[in-house]
Amino acid sequence: MDTSNNNIWTDYLGKKFLLVAMSLALITHGVIIYFTLPKTYDAYVHIFFADHYSRFWFEPWEYRWYTGFLTISYPPLVHQMIALISKIFPLKVSFCIYAITILQILIVGVYRFSKLFFDKATAGIAALLVVLLSSIVETLHVFGQMPTLTGLAFLLNALPFLYQYLCKGKTIYLVMALSFFAVVISSHHVTAIFGVAFFVAPTVFMALSDGLNESQEKKNLFKYLYTILVAAIKKYKKLFIFGALMIPLAVGLIFPYWYWSKTDPITQVSIPHGSRDNFFLKPSSGIVFYIIPLTLIFALLPSTLYSLFKQRRFLGWTVSFLLCLLLGSGGTTPLPKMILGANAFNILTLDRFGFWASIIAIPFMAKFIYSFISGGARSFWISRFSSKNHFLLSGLTGISYFLFLIFIFHLSSFRPLQPKEIEIEPIVNFMNRDDHIRWRFLTLGFGDQMAWLSANSLAASVDGNYHSARRLPELTTRPVERLENAKFSGNYGLASLSDFLTEAEKYSLKYVFSNDRYYDPLLYYTGWSRTIRLENGIMVWERGNVSTIQPTPPKKLSRLLKYMWGIIPLSSLVIASLLTILYLKKYKEQDYLIPALKNQDYYPKLIIYSSSLLPVVFFSCFMIKQIYELLLVREQKDPVTAVLNYYNNLDFQRFENAFHFFEPSPTYPLDQYLLEKSVSDGGLLPSYAKLDSIHVKTIRTTKDSAFCSIFTRWNTSLGFESKTDSMNLVLRNSKWYIIPPKFKIQIPAEQMRSYNYVLFKKMGKRVISSFPTVKDDRIKKPFAQFIQTNLIRNGKENSITGEILNADDIPINISLKVLVRYQNELVKTFYPQTVFQYNLSPKSSTYFNITLDNTKAMDSLKVQSIELYAETDVSERGYIHGGAPSYTVKLLTSDKVQIETKIYDELTTSINIPAILIAEKDESGKIWQSQLLIHKTAIRSGLSATFQNNVQKIQHRAIALTQVPLSVFINGQKRSIPPILQDELATKNKGIVVLPHCFMSEEFYLQ
Amino acid sequence: MRTLSLYIALLLFFYGCKSTTLDKPEWLEQNDTLFVPNFNLVFLTDTDWNITLQTFIQPIELKTRKEKGKIIANLPLINGLTEGPGWIRLSKNKTYFDYPVIIKNRLPLDKLKKIYRSPKTVNPDSNLNQQSINYSTDQYSNLLLVNKNYFFEEQLHLNSKTGTYYAIDKDALSTYYVQSGTCEYIPIKMKERNKDNYIIKIGPLTDQYQNILADGTMIKILCWDAKSTFSMQAYSLRGIANVSIPISHSRNYLFMAQINRVNSSIINLNQ
């Protein structure tokens, strides 16, 4: 065939494919993205940043997260562009418009990038591949990583200019390359940094290689590398100019970012990320971060590697591709950690390397696909197996890949990444009314939608969704991603959350919007009260005695840097766009390359077989595995599997599925199971816990029956709880079934129950005006009185114990705080955690126990004085702590007692978490310690439950420190403490007294 | 020619962006004191100024009309304002000029009597003294002189009876409150014994002045024998609480009620 005719044809075909790709992207991704956006990991974070720029373009201080942070901690271009579009369209639509525009630029980028390697028709196929490539689909629709895509789109467009500059030496190419690199730098710093290593270096290498003549290329590898080095030295001027201009661009364009990272370096404990897992040990991470994005790459690996190794000009790309593939494998092997170093390994999310590997592979995959569709590989198949078989194989591959893509789009349905969509308007309205915006809020169980809420409100949260900007010690000292999803960070997460909930005053945190009842026990026992359930089902928890947000001065930043940040990054895009128009009009040339492309369309037999068959095998196997897991797994093949699957269904509250594990019986239908469950279930473990681990031990087994013991560990917001159950199983029709346990029902004597208590209503602002509350409407601070306070030292532990009384006629909310003043002027603050009743009815009292520093720290620093502060506030509700406990105390040893508590539920609702607050008193009535003892299951109205706890008494080995001055203050006024009175009841009960401290989920009681 | 037309367009563009400087208008018959109502402020100017009167609590937009190089501003439909320092602000886009004035009402306005009581809530456990500050204002919150004084202060000794009292008749915002104090004595008796429960009446609960204790006051109920202790919480309503104790919980138990540190007598439920 005539070469020029062939070029015209491939040119035409390439451009046609490009246009088809761009149109296809518009009608597929353009439509879908609006619906996938709410379920992505990152989209809302970028929308929040965009909202910031939309409101405060030249002010980088963002006060809404983490008590304030600087937005110069992230390159701004993407966010600023979305902010600009949002001046016309709503934020979500703006994000979608921006995303689809970037996808179009990326398609053009891949097309141009692929032209560096092969002809235009192959580049057209590469452009089409962008629309369908799983890694890009996942990055866009699952991760929502817009800066990564923006950076990549412009980087790929920059590379052909750089290549042409090095090959042809014209200044316009240098200018164009630099202008596109400028956009990369302004969009995503990580792409800019690693792009140099993984994309720019191979491009330079290829340009140098293409400058060699054929004889130089044919030398052995070392000689060839030496020749490249010589060529680089010969072109040192061009390379130097490029490098010398790139460095000031990289520094200057986002100088405020470098300034921030230097002056306020990130010093926080690394947050675990699935991309750093060992994918063999955690297959779920492997599927999301390695298998899904790279399946096609692995399927076509033989042809890709063949193409890469076939030409020496691709040597740089080969190294880059393999290195990216290796780094993307996370912690599966120790190599990535060795290569990157422990520090970078623990900071970076490694899935991006796999993503880049997939991008490098695109031209080579396109090459084989093109060959398989209409080139040499197709001819090979047809000559061996007829065109019918080739068509069949193509169809099967296409269908299986299409199903695989659909699976990715619906990934969030199969493996929910986010909670269901939450209507945010009721929350925004709540924060806007009655000056609620003057306090901070916290969301729980919102997922990334917390960023969407923040983007729609000016209210401030203590939490946030941009980890690098966190500076609060409660967050940076623990590997916790967000407070909002603390339960997924185990003990560390709950410790951080607990710190914020108990130290709410420190951060003016007054409202918690909870979308997950898992956190209810922790909220209740740390002094939070439910106040209202919003129309969207979100429960609002409120904390009393919290002062409004104090003005925090923003971190100082010179006005010049602020203007730089607002103007320069955006200018880079404007300049790149103008230059592109100029380039297209005046300078564009037909071909990039000086040497003619070696457009060989040959693959060895083995490569054709493997690369043709592997895709259909891989995708079919993947889909078959998914279908098998969803539908065909034998869940009752043996007793252990049956029990494990039963608990799995229970944990996810799929009760109907769980019921099917019971032996079918006409006397035990689903109704009966649910009924028995409803009256016997409930409480901390069944209702507010997540199964952490399970171990099933078969105690005895016969041919058709088994008896198992099940050890479960549950993660609750109040800590881990363990439980041991036992189950009998029988074999019926090759399936193992659980025999329903015998149901022991407790029946209350009464048919109707009544319970009296008084409802209170705080009238609040009586004058309807927009002015602040008039003095006449302010309610006085309620009266309270310390009955006793003691500083107790028990070995290494120190604590303040005591009792405080609500001396007023109204229910009150009390907050306690201990200030320990050391001799070196260090002052430390401590709060009661769960050992305290924060809401008290008139004339009721509570014990408290506030843990201080350990003995070593206190003695070495030398305590000067201790101050105990109580602040009181009027409360409307939450003062009923439920239950009527009777208790018996047995002495186990001289220092150990067993408390047998029987709590009778006299209320008209179930007690969901029965608990008691105990105090250990001596004969004089002094309190030595207090503890919260919780029972794991609920008590129905009119019934009672008995539980036992062993308590170590400390009064015989602990000492009461009296030499340290201890002052008490109530509402800022110094108070005295009355003498301690003997407690005969305590003396009768071996020093133990109890108070009921139960949690009722019934909202009427609104604790 | 094309290049030239480009330059011309650019020149026009930059000229269009140039902002003009506005001069400070002259206020004819300027006076330090502004008497409200019925004033006309006349400024010599050709510009359409937006004119506001800023009192120290709020800005009020004045009504303006233009007349031959003058702009005249007044404030119709208002009898008076909060007196004190203020200023007239003339603003146009980002330019503004301020003219400080002292605002005074021209006509005497209605006199409103005010009484402020402190503390508003009194507990007879501490003391029943209260400070009363009497003063008068007009409807715009301007303090008025009464007998050559703005304020009249007196110390009052309140009645010990609990209740909500009005310092000024029918003025809900002037109310003050006398609460009940600490419980003095806890009467207790078994009211009845039915098949399942003992019903025990606690109360009437009063303080030292025979005031009924506040609704919702928590009463700790304690039953015990040599072996175990049963505890319960009840809330008083109009000074009385009826407690129902299941018989199963109270065999041979002694019973006592407790409010803060005050204990009732101990009764044996089986006697």
UniProtKB/TrEMBL annotation, chain A:
The keyword Membrane applies. The chain crosses the membrane at residues 17-37, 95-114, 120-137, 172-200, 239-260, 280-302, 314-333, 353-370, 391-411, 563-585, 606-628. It comes from the Bacteria. Keywords: Membrane, Transmembrane, Transmembrane helix. This is Membrane protein 6-pyruvoyl-tetrahydropterin synthase-related domain-containing protein.
